[in-house]
UniProtKB/TrEMBL annotation:
This is Nuclear GTPase SLIP-GC. Residues 487-503 have a biased composition (Acidic residues). Residues 773-924 form the DUF7605 domain. It comes from Cercophora scortea. Residues 1-42, 457-505, 1031-1068 are annotated as: Disordered. InterPro entries: DUF7605, Dynamin_N, P-loop_NTPase. The lineage of its organism: Eukaryota, Fungi, Dikarya, Ascomycota, Pezizomycotina. Residues 118-168 form the Dynamin N-terminal domain. PANTHER family: NUCLEAR GTPASE, GERMINAL CENTER-ASSOCIATED, TANDEM DUPLICATE 3. SUPFAM superfamilies: P-loop containing nucleoside triphosphate hydrolases. Residues 1-11 have a biased composition (Polar residues).
Length: 1068
């Protein structure tokens, strides 16, 4: 346990003295000022109060790295605030007290758990739902049957705060509104009706766009006749007004259950697709809900989610339903992390990490500065053929050594079984003959007893073996049955039975009494001999059987180890390959941007960042959800998955720790900020409460002099802070202007030229990469965005992509490196001003004489730390730049909306030719104006973002200055806010003097947290690694400006943008 530092005494002369955070308020060696007689020696109680008022343990707790301790400290702080608020309630009529109650309420609200959203993306069948279930340790929370509805519905999973047993599992099913459904119905009806006479055949073909549209309509309207649909007897409005549909549009349905099985059954009623389910009612009787669902929010009590993590299963942003597509896009915008899931059998070959769901998606991640928040998950590692895996292993691989050992052990098993076989056969044979022996003994004994006085004995005994022993006969019969056909098999069996019956037909034998007695003795002697032989054989078999059992166990273990080694070998090969592909994908984007900037001077050998570091920092997990679930006691109907010897081998526990590390790091940020603000609040309240007890007694003239000095120092501090703010944000404006705004003209010109190329590429013949008529028209009907059977197309994204290519790298550098570094420099300058202010206060003997000076001095140190914290400002910056970079595309959508509408209405002879003509003509007309609008909207949002950011920083700084002003003035002119409420003051006094004891218990007694991936120091406020670590360029191997054609502007901010005395030049 870390013990708090003991208070230290100040040292040095008055001019050089620094206020120590935990020093005593007044050193005993210091003479009192001449203006006031010295206060008598403090009592023990007062001295103890001074120690507690410094909140030593709260200061230690703020520096903790354990998120568990930070959580516990936050809980303790919240309880302290609640107790103080209750004590203040007695005096809430006083305006000053009411303000304090409001401040406490605001501070309590800041401690609320912050959501950490992690988006989960991947292709159909990649195992997203299975991975999510495994991470949450639930067997069937998210449907995993691969049905169509599961891939179409956005599913958000967060912690369940309800403690009710019947609400252990909860869900909110949000349905789209009537307006959105009507819009989609128009598109679907158009798809069904826009054929050329062959539509009827395509309606039932789920592999065609027409078939998909028809199935979606029939899913919601099962009683709709096909002929009526084809003849257009229903309009979109008619269908929206259907009572059953109208009843759920825009609504939210709630589901709750106490068990996962009941919960899953209820969920299936809403999101299931009947084409995948057996035992359903007739098709015409069922209305399905899945096409109408916008998002499903699931709430479950999972430790992984408890710290604020939210997992979102995203089907993609190309959904044919505009409402769902918009929701998916918004989730991606707000994501703190992104999990890309691909089956391990395809992850490397398909280059999932490098291609990352398409070029436009990768470029958006680059704009958002989100590359450092990507995690790649290779699923289905249990899908392995050991035979195939062994072929790809090197000669010295562990699996080969284990397999060789397995072969040796299997050979030993064969030898041992061969050694055991004759002994077991002999034991079996002895068992049979001993059985016959017993029967003969019984028969002879019975005959002797029945003979009485007769000299002759008639013995009934088994017949003699005429041809072969019984064992040989049975073995012969088995061979015959195996070799003969089924028809002859029965006959053969019957003949054998007759033969055996003849062989062992009983016969009678007449012996003399003496011969019978002699026979009895021989039989008993034979029985003894056979028993001795059998027992000896049994003793010899016992160690052999034990050996064989051990060998079989070893073989089973070796098979598991061989499979385990193969799995680990494949994982070990896949992980670095995927990391390298990820880095190669970023390299491609950087090189593409460099070519766009200056193709003549492009040098492929130049590296804009350290791509090896980029690769090494990508988290990759190779997981088996099914093996984890089986080892955890779930999936009872599944057989064990070979090769996974522990839960850790499945890598799901590692993924869980990684997930909790993301949320805990962000939670730790929230807790530290709360504890820092709590320290300010308690210290300020302490000063105001305790100063009312024994304020510093000063002559009016001295008090006026000190207040005047404080006012002057505070005014200068505020003025200097305002100057720093102005200079800092002027630099930010220059950075954005010179790196982004000034590039708009070139970017617009290039993008305007590329528009015509994009439009002409759509019109080419299909075999040249063009679009067929139905796909082209369907895309226009959907305002340029269509996800058909041939894959997703987004005309708007294809048009805007050349513009974004020109700006992406510069944008990433500005908002992940240059401006964040400028904010850090500003924060350091603010903290230095506060430190200078403290030095001024420390040189005022009257202030230092106060018994509460140490408390106020510590408060100033806390505020200095708070000003150094730029996480909140960077979060606001990141949010603003994400909103700004998403304004390019809407301008294109608006500019192209009229031509989309016109093309979507075309039909009849020559319609395709007219569509292509309208598109090319319109693109030529609007190309320059739409890009000017796009960049103008973006520039406007960037300007607004800087204004908002500056306002936030100014409020943050002004708050610190005001707190200093109030606290230092309280040393000179205290005020009793509880003048008429002595009881309230005493309650608050007791709570404040006992506050640090609560934090002491947390520091000393709260156990260390489990070994969770601690990313608190490696991740920024948005839950991603700092861009400086991720994207910092390598040191060039040659001069930066040699043949770069202006590329140096990306590596170093403009000289005019940053003053050398205030911040270092960002690189990269």
């Amino acid at each position: 346990m870390t013990k708090p530092r003991q208070p230290s005494s100040p040292h040095g002369n008055a001019a050089g003295r620094l206020p120590l955070p935990l020093q005593k308020a007044l050193p005993t060696s210091r003479p009192p000022p001449s203006t006031q007689p010295r206060t008598p020696q403090k009592t023990a109680a007062v001295a103890l109060g001074d120690d507690l008022m410094k909140l030593d343990f709260l200061q230690l707790l703020k520096k903790e790295s354990s998120s568990d301790k930070l959580e516990a400290g936050t809980d303790a702080g919240l309880q302290i605030l609640e107790d103080i608020k209750a004590a203040l309630g007695d005096a809430k009529e006083i305006a000053e007290v009411a303000k304090w109650i409001q401040k406490i309420g605001d501070l309590q609200a800041k401690a609320c758990t912050r959501r950490t959203v992690v988006g989960v993306v991947g292709s159909t069948g990649a195992g997203k739902s299975s991975v999510i279930n495994a991470v949450l340790e639930q067997e069937c929370l998210v449907p995993t049957s691969g049905m169509r509805a599961c891939t179409a519905v956005i599913t958000e999973i967060q912690y369940n705060e309800s403690s009710a047993e019947n609400e252990k599992y909860r869900a909110e099913i949000h349905f789209i509104g009537a307006k959105d459904w009507k819009k989609e119905l128009r598109v679907l009806l158009d798809d069904v009706a826009s054929g050329d006479g062959h539509v009827g055949a395509d309606l039932l073909n789920g592999d065609t766009d027409v078939g998909v549209a028809y199935s979606k309509i029939r899913a919601v309207y099962p009683n709709l006749a096909r002929d009526d649909l084809l003849k257009g007897k229903f309009t979109a409005q008619n269908l929206v007004d259907d009572p059953a549909v109208k009843n759920i549009l825009g609504r939210v349905r709630l589901i709750s259950a106490s068990s996962p099985q009941d919960f899953s059954a209820q969920m299936q009623k809403f999101i299931d697709s009947k084409e995948k389910t057996r035992g359903r009612k007739k098709e015409s009787e069922i209305m399905e809900n899945w096409p109408l669902i916008k998002v499903v929010k699931v709430f479950v009590r999972s430790p992984v989610l408890e710290s604020g993590l939210v997992l979102v299963d995203l089907p993609g942003v190309h959904d044919s339903n505009a409402a769902r597509s918009a929701v998916a896009s918004k989730y991606i915008e707000n994501c703190s992390g992104l999990w890309v899931i691909a089956p391990i059998t395809r992850a490397v070959d398909d280059k999932s990490a490098q291609n990352l769901l398409g070029g436009s998606f990768r470029r958006q991640l680059q704009f958002d500065g989100m590359y450092s928040s990507v995690t790649v998950i290779c699923s289905k590692t249990d899908d392995l053929s050991v035979t195939e895996a062994m072929k790809a292993l090197p000669e010295d691989a562990e699996a080969r050594e284990l397999y060789q050992r397995q072969e040796l052990v299997e050979a030993e098993l064969v030898r041992s079984q061969a050694e055991l076989l004759p002994m077991t056969e002999r034991i079996e044979e002895l068992g049979r003959v001993m059985e016959n022996n017993e029967k003969e003994i019984d028969s002879v004994d019975l005959a002797i007893r029945l003979a009485g006085d007769s000299e002759e004995v008639e013995i009934a005994s088994p017949g003699s073996r005429k041809r072969k022993p019984r064992a040989a006969a049975v073995e012969s019969r088995k061979r015959m049955q195996k070799n003969l056909s089924s028809d002859s098999e029965d006959a053969g069996s019957e003949s054998d039975d007759d033969e055996l019956a003849e062989d062992y037909e009983p016969k009678r034998e007449v012996l003399t009494l003496a011969a019978a007695v002699q026979r009895m003795a021989e039989l008993k002697a034979q029985r003894v001999a056979w028993r001795v032989e059998k027992e000896a054989l049994a003793r010899n078999c016992k160690p052999l059987r034990r050996k064989i059992k051990d060998i079989k166990f070893e073989i089973k273990d070796l098979k598991s180890r061989v499979a385990n080694a193969c799995i680990k070998s494949r994982n070990g090969y896949s992980r670095p390959a995927i990391q390298q592909q990820f880095a190669d994908g970023i390299r491609e984007l950087d090189q593409d941007a460099a070519v766009q900037r200056d193709e003549d001077n492009f040098d492929p050998a130049y590296e804009e960042r350290d791509y090896q570091k980029v690769a090494a920092q990508l988290p990759v997990f190779c997981v088996s959800s099914r093996a984890f679930q089986k080892l955890s006691g779930r999936l009872d109907k599944d057989k064990p998955y070979e090769g996974f010897r522990s839960l850790e081998d499945t890598e799901i526990p590692g993924l869980q720790r990684h997930a909790m590390g993301i949320s805990r790091s962000m939670r730790a940020v929230t807790c530290r900020k709360f504890l820092n603000d709590l320290s300010h609040t308690l210290a300020s309240l302490m000063v105001q409460v305790v100063m009312a007890d024994k304020p510093l007694k000063l002559a009016d003239e001295i008090k006026e002099q000190e207040l005047k000095f404080i006012n002057g120092a505070v005014a200068k501090l505020q003025k200097d802070c305002d100057r720093l703010t102005s200079h800092g944000f002027l630099d930010c404006e220059k950075i954005i202007k010179e790196w982004i705004i000034d590039r708009f003209n070139t970017a617009r010109r290039i993008a305007a030229n590329e528009v015509l190329n994009a439009v002409s590429s759509w019109a080419r013949p299909k075999d040249e990469g063009g679009l067929p008529f139905l796909t082209y028209r369907a895309t226009c009907v959907r305002e340029g965005v269509f996800k058909g059977c041939a894959g997703p197309r987004d005309f708007n994204e294809e048009i805007v992509d050349p513009l974004k290519k020109q700006l992406a790298r510069a944008w990433e550098t500005v908002f992940t490196q240059s401006i964040p570094r400028r904010l850090d420099a500003m924060a350091g300058d603010y903290a230095k001003l506060l430190n200078d202010f403290q030095l001024q206060m420390a040189n005022r003997p009257v202030l230092v004489e106060s018994r509460y000076y140490g408390l106020v001095s510590q408060q100033a140190k806390n505020l200095e730390e708070a000003l150094r914290d730029t996480k909140e400002a960077k979060s606001l910056l990141n949010l603003g730049q994400k909103e700004a970079n998403r304004l390019f595309k809407p301008a294109i959508e608006n500019a192209m909306s009229n031509v989309y509408l016109r093309c979507g209405q075309e039909s009849g002879n020559g319609c395709f030719k007219r569509i292509k003509y309208y598109m090319s003509t319109h693109a030529e007309t609007v190309r320059e104006a739409m890009f000017k609008t796009a960049t103008g909207d973006t520039q406007k949002r960037l300007d607004e973002m800087l204004v908002e950011l500056r306002s936030s920083v100014e409020v943050h700084v002004a708050r610190a200055v005001n707190l200093l002003n109030e606290d230092y003035k309280s040393l000179v002119a205290g005020k009793d806010i509880f003048e008429a409420f002595t009881a309230a003051r005493e309650k608050v006094r007791d709570l404040l003097f006992g506050a640090d004891k609560r934090f002491k218990r947390v520091v000393e007694t709260h156990g260390e947290e489990s070994n969770v991936v601690d990313q608190a120091t490696a991740m920024n406020v948005d839950g991603v690694r700092p861009a400086e670590e991720f994207a910092a360029p390598t040191t060039p191997t040659r001069p930066v400006n040699a043949g770069m054609g202006g590329r140096e502007q990306l590596l170093t901010p403009p000289a005019s943008a940053i003053k050398k005395s205030e911040t270092p030049s960002p690189s990269g």
